[in-house]
Specification:
Elements lengths: L2 H16 L6 E5 L5 E5 L2 E7 L1 H17 L10
Antiparallel strand pairs: 1-2, 2-3
Length: about 80
């Protein structure tokens, strides 16, 4: 895959994760072509290449499906 495809798939996965979260995950592109991943106002990962970002977001999506990401709308 090329970088554009990685980012397209990453955005689709983020939409899935954000459907069950009050604070959205977002990506920000730097001028040098690298990306940040943020959760709300907090930066989770920075200066990632598109493939690395895709891998990280896929992992988050799998954790979300398995129930490993706590829904922040619910109290413990």
């Amino acid at each position: 895959m090329n970088n554009k495809e990685y980012i397209e798939f990453t955005e689709k996965k983020l939409d899935q994760i954000n459907a069950s979260s009050r604070k959205p995950y977002t990506i920000t592109k730097h001028l040098n072509g690298l990306y940040n991943l943020s959760y709300g106002l907090d930066v989770v990962a920075w200066m990632l290449e598109p493939r690395e970002l895709w891998q990280l977001v896929n992992t988050l999506c799998i954790l979300d499906i398995l129930g490993g990401l706590k829904n922040d709308n619910m109290e413990a």
